[in-house]
Amino acid sequence: MAVYSLPKTFAPAEKLDPIIERYKAFRLLSLKQSPESFSSSYEREIAFPDETWIKRVCGPLSTNIIAVSGNPTGSEGNKEQERDLLLKEEWLASLTLSGPFDKEAAVAMFKNNMWIESPSIIMGDEIEFYFGLYAMYVAPNARGAGLGVSLVEYAKEKALEIVGGKKTRLVLVVDFDNIGARRTYEKGQFVLNHDYWFDDTRCGRAQRTQSAVMRVDIGGPDSLRKNTTP
Predict the structure, then answer these.
(1) What is the pTM of this model?
(2) Where is the N-acetyltransferase domain positioned along the sequence (predicted)?
């Protein structure tokens, strides 16, 4: 198993098209197989124009993380080999890292994309950047192997890489009764920040659902000292 973030650019540009199509197919499959796990739906996203899928993969504030069935080959960071593996091997799991956002942009993101009415509850005085985690999905045939934890750890490392190791908070929203998902995030050091109720329109769900807002803080000088202490 290998974990990669999808490339946002490639030369020539046409080489990115099959990656975008593969992402689209996997996302639609996840919505079909586990509709209760997402706030969106297959019917909504199958109607998206190509521009929407391109933006999801190539947008500056969106990093899509994918676990594939094959093993890494060659040197780390070889984009051609990573692309070949992403196209050749079976996709097993996915997670989207959204950001980075400064405090002002994070408030808008929490309200508009995570439906959190009181973002001040999540904000931290020493936090320089914020990211959101979305759309965790593990294919049925790959569950129970720890892929969710691998995706979360990769997302944390990627976030620190993007912001140069500065103090950062990752935030996610998960159904309170989704014990399996919450345990996965807890293994990645996420803690419950607060919970709230919302009107749930998803198929098979009750009219009102309780959501858990979870967060983890990473990076900053304290983290650097821990990593360099003998």
Answers:
(1) 0.90
(2) 65-219
